[in-house]
Design a protein that fits this description.
Elements: H1 3-28, H2 34-46, H3 51-58, H4 62-74, E1 78-82, E2 90-94, H5 96-117, H6 122-136
Antiparallel strand pairs: 1-2
Helix pairs in contact: 1-5, 2-4, 2-5, 3-4
Length: 137
């Protein structure tokens, strides 16, 4: 495969991903970005986390995580809690409202992806699945 073909492949993958994010943002309509939902999803699956650990796990800078968590706390989707044995340690914890939000975000994302992939034939979907499985191996 030549460099031009690889460039076109990467460009089209990026274009598809960006298009998906833009459509999801319009559809979800909560003034939250994908990064906010990633933070909430991690908290939902793993429980309360120290912001530094959360940033490292999600590949974010501490400053970015601080910005994201400020908005989550302000919207009452997460709360800051102190460690019972060491009050210097602060955790970020998802609220019930945050759980509802991340569940709804995931459902809307699944609906959007389903709608987009309906354009493909069954054979194309199976071929695409094999490609993604190979790339993720």
């Amino acid at each position: 495969m030549n460099d031009q073909t690889i460039f076109e492949l990467i460009h089209n993958m990026d274009k598809f991903t960006n298009n998906l994010i833009v459509k999801w943002n319009k559809m979800f309509n909560e003034e939250l970005g994908v990064s906010h939902i990633l933070v909430l999803g991690h908290l939902k699956e793993n429980g309360k986390s120290r912001p530094s650990d959360l940033a490292k796990t999600l590949g974010l800078t501490p400053a970015t995580l601080t910005h994201l968590s400020e908005k989550l706390v302000k919207k009452k989707l997460a709360v800051r809690v102190t460690d019972e044995s060491d009050r210097r340690i602060i955790y970020l914890q998802i609220t019930d409202k945050g759980i509802d939000t991340v569940i709804r975000a995931n459902k809307e994302g699944q609906l959007l992806r389903k709608t987009l992939f309906e354009k493909l034939t069954q054979e194309e979907k199976e071929f695409m699945l094999k490609i993604y499985e190979k790339l993720n191996a």
